[in-house]
Every structure is written in C-alpha cells, then in structure tokens.
C-alpha cells in the first residue's frame, strides 16, 4: 500500500492538472496503481484528500513563520520577504504545497479548511509588518493589518498562477507584486532588501 505522502502527492498532481471538481478518487487511485476501493480505505472522500493537502500547507506556513522570524530578528520586512520566498519555493518544489495554493483559489473546492490556513497566513504577515512598524521600517501611520491583507491576496494569487505557468521565464522576477506593495507603503530600498534575502538563501543552499 502506498504511503500517506505518496497518496497525497498523487492527489496533488491530479488536482493541479484537472482542478478540484474534475478530479476523482478513481483517477487518483489509478495514478497509484490502486483500485478506488483500496484508496477509500485510507481517504474515504475527495474532500478528505483536499483537507489533508490544505493542512499540509497550514503546517508549512506555521513552521516557516518561525524560521523566518529567527533568521531576521532585527527586520520585519526581511523576515516577511524570507517567509514569502520560502513558501513560493515550497509551492514550486512540492506538489502538495502547490496544489493547496490552487485549492484556496478554486471556487469548486471545499471551504472547510481554507478559512484556517488563510487566517494563519494573514496572521504571519501581520506579525512581520507589526514588527516592521516597531523597528521603523514602515512609515507612520501605516496599517499592518491592511498591508497584510493586500500582501496575502497578491501572494496567494501569485502562488496559484505559478502553479499553472510552467516556464521559469514566464514567472518573471520573484515577489513581483510584493515589490509594488512595499514600495507603495513607503518601505525604503525594497529591491535591495529582496535581493539581500535571495542572495542569503542562495548562499545557504549552495553551502
């Protein structure tokens, strides 16, 4: 019997290719070389698979929030950039994360797990921006909650778009919309800060 992770990988691949509504337990089972009956003993419904995929993303968001805060304790802006870069990398490298991002924007997918993961994502962004306000990285008066809401919408949209755009060149520059958001909010040298975070990440991967 395939592992739980391999089942979720198959479900993620199916939902990325066909969307939630057009995916089926039979098609997911076929990807695994299983009968539908064998699959439903582990995941009785398509909704259960979707919930597991979104829970995977929620756990990734929680974990990455802590890692980014520790990596940049003296900069809320850099911590937020690092957080979004790492989540974007996860979406590109892991079908589970990419499928979850797509499910959030798919109107046919169930909403039972979406509210929680979106709230956790928004909370992380708001915390980074509140820290940026405390450190003087954002001009007064700025609304951390409003900026977090806007950054959330653009980052989820960008993640969902990236899941369907397979050419790296077509994706353009990393965090394209975040650059506009932070610049409009009055953050100084946004491009330089993003480049710094990307360079540090590249050095860590190479090392």
UniProtKB/TrEMBL annotation:
Q: Name one Pfam family in it.
A: TetR_N
Where is the HTH tetR-type domain positioned along the sequence?
1-61
Which of UniProt's keywords are assigned here?
Answer: DNA-binding, Transcription, Transcription regulation
Superkingdom in the source lineage? Bacteria
Show the InterPro entries listed in the entry: Homeodomain-like_sf, HTH_TetR, Tet_transcr_reg_TetR-rel_C_sf
Q: Which Gene3D superfamilies match?
A: Tetracycline Repressor, domain 2
- Report what the protein is called: TetR family transcriptional regulator
């Amino acid at each position: 019997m395939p592992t739980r992770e391999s089942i979720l990988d198959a479900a993620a691949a199916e939902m990325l290719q066909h969307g939630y509504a057009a995916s089926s337990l039979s098609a997911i089972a076929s990807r695994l070389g299983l009968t539908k009956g064998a699959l439903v003993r582990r995941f009785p419904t398509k909704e259960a698979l979707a919930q597991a995929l979104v829970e995977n993303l929620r756990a990734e968001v929680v974990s990455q929030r802590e890692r980014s805060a520790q990596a940049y304790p003296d900069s809320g802006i850099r911590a937020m950039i690092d957080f979004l870069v790492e989540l974007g990398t996860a979406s590109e490298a892991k079908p589970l994360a990419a499928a979850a991002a797509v499910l959030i924007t798919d109107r046919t997918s169930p909403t039972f797990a979406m509210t929680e993961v979106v709230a956790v994502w928004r909370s992380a962004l708001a915390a980074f921006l509140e820290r940026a306000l405390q450190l003087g990285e954002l001009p007064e008066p700025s609304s951390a909650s409003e900026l977090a809401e806007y950054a959330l919408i653009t980052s989820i949209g960008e993640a969902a778009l990236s899941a369907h755009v397979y050419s790296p060149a077509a994706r353009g520059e990393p965090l394209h919309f975040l650059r506009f958001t932070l610049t409009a909010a009055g953050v100084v040298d946004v491009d330089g800060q993003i480049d710094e975070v990307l360079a540090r990440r590249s050095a860590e991967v190479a090392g």
